[in-house]
Every structure is written in structure tokens, then in C-alpha cells.
Amino acid sequence: MKNKEVSMDRIKEYLSSKLWLSVVIAIIVLCVVFSILSPAFLQWSNFQAVLVQSSITGIMAVGLCFVIMTGGIDISIGAILLLSATVFAYTVNGTESFMLAFLASLSTATLAGVLNGVLVYYFKMAPMITTLATYNIYNGIALHISKTENVPIDRGYTFLGNGRIANIPVPLMILLAITLIGAYLLSHTRFGTFVRAVGDSQVSATESNLPTRRTIVSAYTLAGFTAGLAGVLLISRTAGLQNSLGVGTEFTCIAAVVLGGTALSGGSGSVVGSVFGAVFLILIDNGLNLLQASPFIYDAVRGIVLLAAVSVDRMSTARQAKTLLEQKALRIGSSIIKQVKKTAQA
Amino acid sequence: MSETNQIELNKRKYGTFAGDFLKSYPTVPIILIMIIGFSLTTRNFLTAGTIRTMMAVNTVSLIAAIGETFVLLTGGIDLSVSTVISASAVISATLMEMTGANILVGILASVIVGLIFGTINGVLIGYGRMTPFITTMDTNLIARGIAFILSTDGRGVKASRELVKFGFKSFMGIPLFTLIGLFLVLVFSILLKQTLWGRKVILTGSNPTAAKYSGINTARTEMSVYVLSGLLAGIAGFISIINLGAGIPGVGDKLLLIIIAAVVLGGTSMTGGEGSVLRTLIGIVLLAVLTQGLDRLHVEFYDQFIILGLLIFLGNSLSIRITTKSSKAMH
Count of CB atoms within 10 A of residue A147's CB? Predict the structure, then answer.
């Protein structure tokens, strides 16, 4: 009997240590609701479509997750996505070499990320303002290159977005790879520990001689790199550059990361959770699409569902913290009682 | 001898007037330089006509930016202002159309819409201890959704002829609705500087723990700034009907980043506790002069993005440098 209780406690403890648990529950609830409302929802092809669609947001969310864990924020990733897609379109049309275009756009995006990190670290401005400035700059450069014209690219270069290997869509494989790498970086390398330490308290991290500068710059670089990769995937899927590409993705990604259990104040978070958060957001769109809802309703539903999800999560963590505090108080209380009894006996 | 020493001491203690002015309003020289530059490079840069256009175009963002200033002062952020403007504009215009151009109904509707969104934000953030960024991002989506659902197929709702006429009325070359905006700047400037509530807002932003221990109900103070921000966004929505002649559901979409940029460029810090309403007015003027000048020089809008980005960066790092220096000198 006692053993059973212990194991239940262990399971509870294990589950509460997983930040992404609440978003998985939210995904299941959403799936149940949509499968009741629409028969087309519960089909393998539909799930595959959802996963492929969420791969772009998911990949970006993985990089952004690191930035948010350092206590920063990056709202320029949507602009980096557009910039990377623009560079890809023009290089692939100009040189007709996929590899060259791929490398060019990825290195542009990575460089943009490095610039973000350097500016955030050295100028001590709020990351939101720094990246607001670079958002404008990157967006401006991208539109300056394209002169806001649509640029089609040849179907032969869209393998990354539409191709399949062993009947598995390529974007999905890239998402899986990025998620695994991200999760490994976060929980099994020193870089991951540094990221969380810097997010907890930048001052303490600096005082304890951790490489704060390298950590912050690397986090923003990762965000830039993943945004660039997402840009190449997105333009491969749409087979053409449009100047509305990536508009608003930064906020979707931030929502995904937060839904996944990463605190905006930094210090703790989950890579896997961020990807689940992205899947959750795409599920809302997918369900509404299947229900043939008016496109004007999307925003309102997204907002309400997000608000509900975030506030339920907030309530549960608050309760958890409360019970933890109560347990601590009980423990302290009982130890005091023991002490008193001891002294009384003596 | 001693008298000159005293003057020197006073100077060191209180600073010179010009120095103080620069510390409080670090972006004013940039505006002056821009005005001189644009006047030299374009014809008739500053005429009564262009000034009037600049004022009319920027009043909506000015009014919303006042509320955003208070939110930033507490160390929070309100991302919902932009679409609350849209929701308020659409709902107010629709109700006015239904009641036969009853302006009072329109004003009431816009105020109530703003208050509702402000209260939702305020309760969730102040008492629910939710993160301002996420909460207001969600209410932003909800307000945008409501604006588009209520407008018939995403098109605007036309305003009555009287209201459009009111938009063209002006006093001494200043549009009447801009005067309303300037009046609000004055009122909230006084509220921030002269009232207990204003002190509470600043203290809550500069050190929440200290504020709590000195007996301030920080939850209530935080809630009040979001309610205020919602209210002012609602009023801004009504002003946008006057200015554009219709309640347009997409009116706020592009304003969010402009509003935040203006508040920050004026010299209000994102971390709370440092800033003023007048600075926000100056931030709005800065952006107004910049866009007007670049438009006159026929700079494409995407090149304006690049310049705006550089300006946000330079302006903010300048104001941070100046304010941290002055606070160091004070210690």
C-alpha cells in the first residue's frame, strides 16, 4: 500500500517536472473537440498536414526558446525569415545552384542573429527595443532587395519544402532533427546550463565567471539560424517570394514558446514544449479551416484559446507553488515540533 | 569669492537648465537637426498645411501612446492598444450608424469598449499575476478578431457627414481633435507628476518590492494603468473615425510598433520607473517629422523602415546613456 503511494508520488513528481505537460493536455483536448465537430479531422493525412505546417513555426520556436530562456526576446525573427527567403529566391534565380542559395540565405540569417546578440549584449538596451530596431532594418533590407515584387522560383528547387524521403515529408524530418539537437543542447551541454543560468540572473552569472557574452550572442545566433532555415522552408513550400511572407510569425512563435512552458522572465524552459506549442497553434487554424469558419473569426478564436490556455497554466503553476510552499512549511513545522518534544523530554 | 563658489556648487548640484532639459528630453536635438535638414533639402517643409497634416495623422497614435507610457512606467507592456483602437472604431461607427449618427452614443461606445479590454488586461495582469506580454498579445488577437467580425467583410463602417465635417474644423491651424489629444497630454502629465497615484505608478515600476513594502497596493496600481491604457485606446479609436471618416477594422494593425517606438524614443524606459507623458509627445513628434520628411524626399517605405530602425537604436542608446549618467551623477 505504502509502495503504491510512493510510486504515485514519483509519477506526479516526474510529470510536474515536465514543463510541456500542460500543452500536451491542451493539444489532446483540442483534438477531442475538433474530432467531435468534424469527421475529416481524425485522419492520418490531416495530422500529417498539421505537422508539416507546424514545422516552420516549430523550427523557429526552438531557436527563440533559447533567447527567451536567457531572459531576452527576439521580435526580429519574422523579418529574418523574410530576409532569408529573399536572399534564397534571388540567389537561386541568379546562380541556379540550390546549395549556394541555401548556404547564402542561412549565413545571412545567422549573421543577422549574431548582430542581434552583439547589440543586445553590448548596448544594454531592452532586448525588445533592440530587436524592434533590427526588425525594421532587416524588413527594410529584404523589401529593398525585392522592391516588394513577387519572385517565383523554379519548382526544381523546392525539394526542402515539398519533398519526401521514404514517404516522410522533408520539413517534418528537419523539424525532428532541430528539436532533437535543441533538446540535446539544452539539457546535455554546458551551453544549455549557461543559458538557464544567465536567464535566472545575468549578474550572478557574470559574477561567477560564466561566459555571459558568448551565451547571449549564441542564443540570438541560434534564433537567427532557425529563422533562416524556416525562411528557406517557407519559400520552398510557396514556390515564390511574397512580401507578406513571415509577417506576424514572431508573435506566433513567442506564443508557441510560452505555451510550451518557457517563462518569459527566463531561466527555465523546454525545447520540446515549444514545438508542441507550435503544433497547438496550427491545430487551432486547422480545426477552424475544417469547420469552414469565416477567416475573420480566426483571430478571435486564437486569442480566446490562447488566453484560456495561458491562464489555466498560470493557475496550475500557482497552485503547485502554493502546495510546495505548504509542504515546506509542514516540514519545517514538524521539525520544530520534534525539536520542542526533544527539549521537553530532556 | 564665496558667492561664485556657491553658484558653482548650485550648478553642480542642480545642473544647468540646458543640461537638465537635455537629460529629460534627450531626443529634442535630433528633432531640431532633422527639421533643419529637411528644410534645407525639401521645399516648403514647414508650412501651416504640412504641420496640420502631421498633427492630423498622428493624433490617434499620440492618444494611445499616452496610455502605453503609463504601462511602460510600471514595467509592463500593452500590446493590445493597437487593435483595441480598431475594435473601438468599428463598434462605435456601427452603433452610430444604427442610432442615426448619434455622436454621444459613439463616444460612449468607444469609451466602454476601451474600458472593457483595459479591465480584462488589468485584472489578469494585476490580480492574476499573468505576464503582461502574453496576456495583452492574446487580447490583441481577440480585439482584432472582434473588429473584423463586426465590420461587414473586413470593410470599414462609414461615419456621418457631421463627424467628417468636425474633422476638418481647426483652431489656429490645429485640428480640433488634435487639441483634444494635446489636452489629454496635459491632463495626464499633471496626473503623473502631481498626484499620489502618479507617484505610485512610478514607484511600482522602479521597484515593485519596495513599493509593496511601503504599503502600495501594487496589484491595484498595475490594474489601473491597463484600464487607463484601454480607455485611451478606446478614445483613440473614436478619433480615428473622425480622422479617416470611417471605422476601419485594420486601422490599428500597423500602429502597435509605432506607438511603442514613439514612447521609447521619447526616453521612457522599458524597464519601468523612468519616463513622462511629455517625452512621449516628443517621441511622436520625432516620428511625425521623420516620416513627413522622408515622404517629401520620396524615400520608399521600405528604406524608411531601415532609417526608422537605425533611429530607434541610436535614439534609445543615446537616452539610456544620458539618463544613466545623470542618475550616476545624482548618487
Answer: 10
Rounded Cα distance between A312 and A192, Å, is 28
Q: What is the pLDDT of residue B170?
A: 75
Helix (H, G, I), strand (E, B), or coil: what is residue A242?
coil
Q: What is the pLDDT of residue A330?
A: 67
What Cα–Cα distance (Å) separates residue A26 from each residue in A53, A287, A328?
18, 14, 30
| pLDDT exceeds 60 at position B13 | no
Distance CA B100, CA B111 (A): 19
Backbone angles phi, psi at A151, to 5 degrees: -120, 110
- Segments in chain A below pLDDT 70: 1-8, 10-18, 313, 315-333, 346
Spell out which residues of chain B touch residue A148, defining contact as CB-CB under 8 Å.
302
User: What's the half-sphere exposure (Cβ side, CA atoms, 13 Å) at B322?
Assistant: 23
pLDDT at B14 over 60: no
Give how far B184 is from chain A: nearest CA, Å.
26
| Cell numbers at B99, concatenated | 442610432
Q: How far is A338 from chain B (nearest CA, A)?
A: 34
Each domain of chain A, given as residue ranges in start order, spans 21-293
B142: amino acid identity, one letter: I
At A108, list the grid cell: 545571412
For chain A, the C-alpha Rg in angstroms (whole number) is 23
Q: Which of A299, A304, A311 sits opposite B148 (nearest CB)?
A: A299
Confidence of residue B112 (pLDDT cuts 50, 70, 90): very high
- Interface check for A298 against chain B (CB to CB < 8 A): the answer is yes
With a CB cutoff of 8 Å and minimum separation 6, the contacts of B236 are: B59, B60, B61, B63, B64, B81, B85, B88
CB B78 within 8 A of CB B272: no
Tell me what ipTM this predicted complex has.
Answer: 0.83
| Whole-number Å distance between alpha carbons of B196 and B60 | 28
CB B121 within 8 A of CB B230: yes
- If DSSP codes are grouped into helix, strand and coil, which group holds residue A268? coil
CB distance B131–A258 less than 8 Å? yes
**Length of chain B counted residue by residue:** 331
pTM, 2 dp? 0.85
Q: How many helices (H) and strands (E) does chain B have?
A: 15, 4
Cell numbers standing for residue A53: 505546417
CATH fold label, A21-293: ABC transporter involved in vitamin B12 uptake, BtuC (1.10.3470)
Q: Is pLDDT above 50 for B287?
A: yes
C-beta atoms of B130 and A143 within 8 A: no
Domain borders along chain B are 55-254
